[in-house]
Amino acid sequence: MKLTFIIFALQLAVGGMLGRLAIPVFRKMKTGKFEVYIGDRFGQDNSEPRGGGAVMFLSLIFACFAGAAAEGLGAADLRGIVGFVMYTGLMTAVGLAEDYDRDVHGGIGMKSRYRVAVKLVVSAGFVALMELFGYDCGVVLLPFRWGYIDLSWAGIPLNAIIMTVLITAVEITDCQRGIHDTGIDGLCAMVMFVGFLGLFAAFGDGRRELARLLSLCAAGSCAGYLIWGLRPSKLYTGQSGGMFLGSAMCGIMVLSGLHGAVMFSCAAAVTELLVHLLQRAVFARKKKLLFKGATLHEHLRNIGWTESRIMAVFAAAQAVFCIGAAAYSIYESKLAVG
Description:
338 residues, mainly alpha, two-stranded antiparallel ribbon, 12 helices
């Protein structure tokens, strides 16, 4: 994987360059003025656009195919990469359309039910395509030594539901309903960066080289974006970023077949979703707020935590969860040998 690590380093340069080129373009869409100068790096003037998903996706394309060439992957793995890129690209495009609507037209994007339907349909299509490419997407490893279960073609809708939930969880980790004022600059990308690195380490036994490569490429995409996305952000993650990061994690889940490991590597985002749902359920029943915010990070900020402290705690928590991803991968290898 030596060449792949070189490509990871190049992704930082690619991400920085793409961000530098994209920010003036996206900002012109938002403000109507094209300025190459992006302003004080450590200050914000409300001209900062959404669209971080585009930078991460373009960086991912470069890394995936360069990594595949460096590692000498076969035709089957190349088909997997093509499917993965198509899936994340479609999801990113949907998010970009919403970012455009919010920044240019001041809209609110698609209604929630339409957004859920898009996630379900596109995710189901990706799983079906991978089945046609020869991946056993319906085979799932259960915990507690229960072994494998073959869901056959029922795995397509079930996987699509799980993928929709995970993408929604990642979106909420960024901000609620795409309103970046409720989010923390770079939090979502940082948490997912740790999660992708955790998967890269978990797949280190040599039996899942494609999933390992994609995990490292996705981590590199996050790192390249964070050059511009950390507080104070010059390019917000946006719906495109949430859709990209969530779909990348889901694509790795389908191609690896280790749903449990991916769940651990996305545990911080899932926790955010659970807190959000609990808040809504309590309010609907008792008309009282359980937390001082719609999400956990918003609650912590409203009780006085600094954004840097929240970022550090979330990243550390996700790193701990990644130990579970590694343990699940080890459990799978021992079960397969046994």
